[in-house]
């Protein structure tokens, strides 16, 4: 089980904290319900045991840092400051904890103005980063060795992950869940939270499992859940319709409205995406075709040719 430690500073924004925390909490619940190992335990640390927030609701925290390893995450939510957003906000000990955790191979992340804390810890120099659009110029000025990327949801550079303002912390957390456990779990978490499922901060979304999840049709989500889990196996439309609780005709119509394709076309897209990954890792076309459920490589070659056209 991985520790997710939130470093809290005075006047932190509740949504910066709660959005990301909800993602990891929901992911932990999903993993526990499925009997899958590798969940999350959330911890909150601060200089004082009670931390005031920008919205007026105080939150409780531990004052002693837990023992952390390379598989753990430390995240700094953003805060409201009447002066410069850049702080200094961290104590020397807090900055050292961030730096040392990254040094041993751990991941360090920030939401919104939390990027300034990472900069104070010396983690932004020579790395891509971002923050809230109102603070980007100040971040670039305060940490001139950092490469501040504008107008993106989040960036990731050598286990230093930064996100833009407020709600983008949800996108960042979904990305981290997808990296560790796969896009299917991230999609289930996003669906449970009733938010759009995004994967990439600044590139076009690459995963079909997430790219076609930004809709509110429960029937289609149920079918996608089944296809996501079993796309390498033969799937019949009558069986998919039965699992969704609607007729074949209704399923085909609703699926097309939600995703722009039929259920079986969606399955083929997932197979192609996985096959391309395997080929990129050195597998032959024949081996990749077999691994994703094609009887032979001819269909895979046709799909690849169509995608390249």
TrEMBL record:
Recorded GO terms, molecular function? Answer: DNA-binding transcription factor activity; sequence-specific DNA binding
**One Pfam family from the UniProt entry?**
DJ-1_PfpI
Task: Indicate yes or no for the key word tRNA-binding.
Answer: no
| PROSITE patterns reported for this sequence | HTH_ARAC_FAMILY_2
User: Keywords of this protein's UniProt record, alphabetized?
Assistant: Transcription, Transcription regulation
User: What domain of life does the native source organism fall in?
Assistant: Bacteria
Asked if the record carries the keyword Acetylation, the reply is no
Q: Which Gene3D superfamilies match?
A: 3.40.50.880, Homeodomain-like
What region holds the HTH araC/xylS-type domain?
221-302
Q: Which PANTHER family match?
A: ARAC-FAMILY TRANSCRIPTIONAL REGULATOR, HTH-TYPE TRANSCRIPTIONAL REGULATOR RV1931C
Protein name, please? DJ-1/PfpI family protein
